[in-house]
Specification:
- This protein is mainly α.
- The chain contains 21 helices and no strands.
- Helix 10 packs parallel to helix 17 and helix 17 packs antiparallel against helix 18.
């Protein structure tokens, strides 16, 4: 198979991430005002409930399939058999998920008022299964994934403004959300034939796949509980209004995190392939580049969002959600720990087949998150959920590092890594200064926010150049070469 450029893949995935960011940036201000706080609360609570059953359907299949499939993707017969076996397992897990979902709707009276919205969100379970997106990740086909995202998000945007017109339209918004996220998955299944032939098979060694899949599944359960327990517990212990407030800060936090992690997502299959083929020198070199680049992105993102949290909330959701500013500022502290923990999980522990340690790390973090939420939500409300998330992210990073240190010690304990952190922190001082200066210089909130972001990027980059940061200098040299070649 022709080796695909990580740079092109990173660009395509960044473009997709930007589109995924622009879509909620365009839609969320409209939706949050039209549906109001209560409607947003119902929408997000229903989505959080379905997410648990989506996890049951998914098991640990995506992560496992990418890790193992990347090793055999050049052999059409092996990858076809492997993909068919994985797809068959996924069909059975999906059936089990739906059975458990319907039983829960009957058993828990609290869910009866949310039944319609929950059932709509449950459609994503079926469409995600037949979507087999892991095939496209194995083959690093981010061109198709990006094109698909563009088409369906544009269609969804049109549908949103046509059909979502009042607080009673939260069900229509749920349908449009599902259409945007998984509407193209039928085409996914059909077009996957260009890579391999997927069919339902019966006679194969289930245990070979199920053991690692279930370990990853356990880790995913812990992670899902960890990710969604804040909204779920806020919904159970507080009101839809509080859930709506926290949903805004959580949404903004996830939007920025998705953009930062665009490079990470496209690098995972390549790292899995290098580790699987025992090309350790190339693996560690790529891992070091990835880690240091993401550190240079995560720290300024954290500082910038803290400085502009009030303006971002007002611009995206309006004055009704102003109280979400504090929880957003708290959540922003988690970026660096979240990204590093993510790297250690998906780029180190999973490729090295240390799923049991991922399970342990996720479990510890999930328990910590739940306990802190239960203790602090009655006192601190939505701010408790944000603080619990930050502390859980720190915990996950520490535990992951403990289990991966023999593989990544040279990456994290190095002068290069330390210098990048110091350079970034110095650059962040410039960001703070720029944001304060812009706040004093402009009365217009839109102008103040726009200039704060633009000037912060320029000043941060300039500081890194002055500090002779190798990553930013190489990046600028690469851009200069590309421009020079285009002009010649």
């Amino acid at each position: 198979m022709k080796k695909k450029s990580l740079g092109i893949n990173a660009f395509l995935n960044s473009l997709r991430s930007i589109l995924n960011i622009l879509f909620p940036i365009i839609t969320f201000p409209y939706v949050s005002r039209v549906l109001q706080v209560k409607g947003i609360g119902i929408y997000n609570f229903s989505n959080s409930i379905v997410s648990y059953f989506s996890l049951i359907a998914a098991l640990g299949i995506g992560t496992y399939a990418v890790r193992e499939g990347a090793k055999i993707r050049d052999n059409i017969h092996e990858i076809s058999q492997f993909a068919s076996e994985i797809f068959t397992i996924n069909i059975f897990s999906t059936l089990i998920s739906y059975i458990l979902l319907f039983l829960s709707l009957f058993a828990f009276s609290k869910l009866h008022n949310y039944a319609a919205c929950i059932l709509i969100f449950s459609l994503q379970i079926f469409f995600t299964t037949i979507g087999t997106e892991w095939i496209y990740q194995i083959y690093e086909d981010y061109g198709y994934i990006t094109l698909r995202s563009i088409i369906f998000q544009i269609l969804s945007l049109v549908l949103l403004f046509i059909f979502v017109r009042g607080p009673q339209d939260y069900l229509k918004y749920a349908v449009i959300t599902i259409f945007s996220a998984v509407g193209a998955n039928i085409f996914n299944f059909i077009l996957a034939r260009q890579f391999c032939r997927i069919r339902v098979v019966w006679h194969f060694n289930w245990r070979v796949h199920l053991t690692p899949i279930l370990i990853i599944f356990g880790a995913n359960i812990a992670n899902m509980i960890y990710v969604n327990s804040d909204i779920t517990l806020l919904g159970l212990m507080k009101s839809n209004y509080i859930v709506g407030l926290y949903s805004v800060s959580s949404k903004i936090y996830q939007i920025v995190k998705t953009l930062i992690a665009a490079l990470l997502m496209v690098t995972i299959p390549r790292l899995a392939m290098l580790f699987g083929k025992n090309k350790m020198a190339e693996y560690k070199s790529l891992l070091s580049k990835l880690t240091n680049i993401l550190v240079l992105l995560a720290l300024p993102a954290s500082v910038g969002l803290i400085m502009l949290s009030k303006e971002v909330v007002l611009l995206i959701s309006g004055k009704e959600y102003l109280r979400a500013t504090n929880s957003l500022s708290i959540l922003s502290l988690a970026y660096i720990f979240s990204i590093l923990a993510w790297i250690l999980t998906d780029c180190v522990l999973i490729p090295s087949k240390r799923e049991k340690y991922v399970l342990r790390s996720m479990g510890i973090s999930a328990i910590l998150n739940i306990v802190l939420n239960i203790l602090l939500i009655p006192v601190m409300s939505e701010n408790a959920a944000a603080l619990s998330t930050v502390l859980a992210e720190i915990c996950m990073f520490i535990v992951n590092y403990h289990y991966a240190k023999d593989l990544i010690k040279a990456v994290f304990i190095s002068k290069f890594f330390l210098k990048n952190i110091i350079d970034s922190l110095v650059g962040c001082i410039g960001i703070v200064g720029i944001c304060l200066l812009c706040r004093w210089s402009w009365n217009s909130m839109i102008l103040m926010t726009a200039f704060s972001i633009i000037l912060s990027v320029i000043v941060y980059g300039a500081i890194l150049v002055l500090l002779s940061n190798k990553i930013i200098i190489k990046m600028l040299n690469d851009i200069r070469k590309i421009i020079k070649n285009r002009l010649l």
